[in-house]
Design a protein that fits this description.
Strand content: 15-25%
CATH class of the largest domain: Alpha Beta
Number of helices: 10
CATH superfamily of the largest domain: Dihydrodipicolinate Reductase, domain 2
Shape: globular
CATH architecture of the largest domain: 2-Layer Sandwich
CATH topology of the largest domain: Dihydrodipicolinate Reductase, domain 2
Number of domains: 2
Order of helices and strands: EHEEEHEHEEHEHEHHEEHEHEEH
Low-confidence stretches: none
Helix content: 25-40%
Strand order of the largest sheet: 2-1-5-6-8-7
Structural class: alpha/beta
Length: 336
């Protein structure tokens, strides 16, 4: 197994190394890949020192799998180049997610759709991954008519620059405008603005939740609306999701579904103040679900609260799980 990680120096690339180690993903040859300014720099992985290589050298090495965490423009340019030499690309950016010819995969939901011909596989948005993981069992049993989503997203989802901005504001009380990832301070603030605005008033992040959810679940008829907010939380996205199901349900049955679904952890004991929080989810791979209660204002209405580490299940862990599935089912291997 020859594995390349593209964007090795970024936040997700760093977590990717941790996840690969923890899950004991078998690697015979490891290729750390980054932009030209990082080429030649040393990096430690599994007790061994590697030199970071550039994109051309990585393509020439024809890895079996390349996991991309380097942004949409890089993926658009380079993922096809890797695919041409037989590499299977698992891409963390938004570049390929809504391409009808590409699979958008959360392994617990739809990995079974993958084939050896899928050379570019899209990893969903971090907020979408944790949400559909919790929604899928409800969708399978009761159907989904409408979703009203509010997200409270960690600044880590924006990347290294946002982390630096938060730390400077926390430690110094201010940040130089040139170093700011956001237009406003993030420390002790909430910014209702994730990614760029579209003409309809929604942000790109909000429409990702709409479009990616429908694609992953395979139902274009689900009515979905979303508001995405950036919050001063270090490592973990939280979501309040108001659900209208197509079929009738009992709340206890929903809780049983959550507690018996692999990858989900039910934390719902209000008598003892037990519910999901990003502080407790940080560094974990599971999706945590709680505050499950009926929405008494509509028929078949339900409220749930979903929390997960956005850099792990929301990015690195999901990508590695896709890689594990591909290897387990003999769906990769460069023959060129």
């Amino acid at each position: 197994m020859k594995l390349a990680v593209v964007g090795i120096t970024g936040l997700v690339g760093t977590v990717m190394q941790e996840v690969l180690n923890e899950r004991n993903f078998e690697i015979d040859e490891f290729l750390p890949v980054a932009s030209a300014r990082s080429v030649g720099k040393p990096i430690q992985f599994r007790g061994k020192e590697y030199k970071i290589i550039g994109m051309e050298e990585a393509v020439a090495s024809a890895p079996d799998i390349a996991i991309f965490s380097a942004g949409g423009s890089v993926s658009k340019e380079w993922a096809p180049r890797f695919a041409e030499v037989g590499t299977t690309v698992i891409d963390n950016s938004s570049a390929w997610r809504m391409d009808p010819s590409k699979k958008l995969v959360v392994p617990e939901i739809n990995a079974s759709e993958l084939t050896q011909e899928d050379k570019i596989i899209a990893n969903p948005n971090c907020s979408t991954i944790q949400m559909v993981a919790a929604l899928n069992p409800i969708f399978a049993k009761y159907g989904l008519k409408r979703l009203v989503i509010s997200t409270y997203q960690s600044f880590t989802g924006t990347g290294v620059k946002a982390v630096k901005q938060y730390k400077e504001e926390k430690e110094k009380g201010t940040t130089d405008k040139a170093n700011m990832a956001y237009e406003y301070p993030i420390f002790e603030n909430c910014i209702p603005h994730c990614d760029v605005f579209y003409d309809n008033g929604y942000t790109k992040e909000e429409l990702k939740l709409v479009n990616e959810t429908r694609k992953i679940l395979g139902d274009q008829d689900i009515a979905i609306t979303a508001t995405a907010v950036r919050v001063p939380v270090d490592g973990g996205h939280s979501e309040s999701v108001n659900i209208e199901t197509r079929g009738k349900f009992e709340v206890e049955d929903i809780k049983n579904l959550m507690s018996n679904t692999p990858g989900l952890v039910l934390q719902d004991d209000i008598q003892n103040n037990i519910y999901p929080m990003p502080l407790m989810a940080k560094g974990k791979d599971e999706v945590f679900v709680g505050r499950i209660r009926r929405d008494e204002s509509i028929e078949n209405g339900l409220n749930i609260w979903i929390v997960s580490d956005n850099l792990r299940k929301g990015a690195a862990t999901n990508a590695v799980q896709i890689a594990e599935f591909l290897v387990a089912h003999n769906l990769v291997g460069v023959t060129a």
